[in-house]
């Protein structure tokens, strides 16, 4: 374990100032994984960061993905994920700052921290099909290679999976952050989106937060993840097909249609949140920027500034529906790195299976097997309840 007097000086850990005064500092963990600190603009932290002096096992081999010939989807088989932490006690929280008795993943106290996942679904190797590729790496050649026919097709799951720690606290979620801290996380999302999009072999970057044991969360620590995929995901492939069918201005027309209707929950100068016309889940919210923005990296400072308190109000409104926290998946859909960037718009799709205070929607035969959804709650009814819940959140608490 690192001792308290083992630190990296400020000059050894260069600082880069990002939007909103957020400061970025980059270092490495003991096994070579990248660790990035994002300091709040009003941080109480000093510039130094402790060295990760753990004795760690070698990183796992890069996973392999297999093509499902019936759907064309690629399935990554990542056996190392079986070893990830499962609901550890607070004193062994792997996302808390390291202590003499907790050899966690982050050596120093932090505001926001991002690091490469120890047991990734994609990566850790990143390579394209060139002579520079490490031995044993059979990366996708290009997008055409990924759609080629044939049984038994495999490729190495090149890519990257990162953990985004929203706070050093043991429990919470994005909705429990301050507006300043939320803004720091948004800046981290934008920074990492740009960095991951520039890596070889990456086709799409996906920031998300899973919240609640009902969703399958194994750590109560407030955190999210970012996946950098070596392909365009099935959901986005379907979206691009819809844009081809409906027209390149699809998102503009959706926004105009929803803002004129009764399903709007919350509006700002730059963003609107609504329950979509054909919502699948009992709680389903889309949050869309008014301007075309392909991903977080393209969002302006003004758009990021407004998003922080607006998103917090939305999440706290979701929790105000019931007397206990609501499980959800907060999925930030971004345009692919190389396709559809002038038509596919950054947007949030927040979904929850909670259909009543003590009831969850489970995907059974029709939805899970056939993809034919049956909605339990009319979208207009859900929107009215969410609108009232969001309105109950006091402005001064954000």
TrEMBL record:
Gene3D superfamilies in the cross-refs: HIT-like (3.30.428.10)
Domain Galactose-1-phosphate uridyl transferase N-terminal: 153-232
Sequence ranges assigned to domain Galactose-1-phosphate uridyl transferase C-terminal in this UniProt record: 259-389
Gene Ontology annotations of biological process type: galactose catabolic process via UDP-galactose, Leloir pathway
Pathway in which the depicted protein is active: Carbohydrate metabolism; galactose metabolism
Catalysed reactions, as listed in the record: alpha-D-galactose 1-phosphate + UDP-alpha-D-glucose = alpha-D-glucose 1-phosphate + UDP-alpha-D-galactose
Cofactor: Zn(2+)
InterPro entries in UniProt: GalP_UDPtransf1, GalP_UDPtransf1_His-AS, GalP_Utransf_C, GalP_Utransf_N, HIT-like_sf
GO CC annotations, alphabetized: cytoplasm
Active site: 223
GO molecular function terms listed in the Swiss-Prot or TrEMBL record: UDP-glucose:hexose-1-phosphate uridylyltransferase activity; zinc ion binding
Domain of life: Bacteria
PROSITE patterns listed in its UniProt record: GAL_P_UDP_TRANSF_I (PS00117)
Keyword line: Carbohydrate metabolism, Galactose metabolism, Metal-binding, Nucleotidyltransferase, Transferase, Zinc
Entry EC no(s): 2.7.7.12
Listed Pfam families: GalP_UDP_tr_C, GalP_UDP_transf
NCBIfam families: galT_1 (TIGR00209)
Family per record: Belongs to the galactose-1-phosphate uridylyltransferase type 1 family.
Protein name according to UniProt: Galactose-1-phosphate uridylyltransferase
Name of the gene: galT
